[in-house]
């Protein structure tokens, strides 16, 4: 099963998105139960989510 997980599991509080993969906690928890089509749709949205997250919360991505 394809997954966008990069093992950087940190949720940015304002957006509730994981800074590693861009998914919500609900999406992460339900990933295995989603259909292939649902997972593909979410995965296609992740690059844009992460770009927006990096623009709005750049401090979340610094060490």
Automatic annotation (TrEMBL):
InterPro entries associated with the record: DUF1289
Name of the featured protein: DUF1289 domain-containing protein
Originating organism: Xanthobacter dioxanivorans
Native organism taxonomy: Bacteria, Pseudomonadati, Pseudomonadota, Alphaproteobacteria, Hyphomicrobiales
């Amino acid at each position: 099963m394809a997954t966008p997980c990069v093992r950087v599991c940190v949720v940015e509080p304002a957006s509730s998105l994981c800074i590693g993969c861009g998914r919500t906690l609900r999406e992460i928890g339900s990933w295995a139960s989603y259909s292939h089509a649902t997972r593909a749709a979410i995965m296609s949205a992740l690059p844009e989510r992460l770009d927006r997250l990096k623009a709005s919360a750049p401090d979340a991505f610094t060490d």
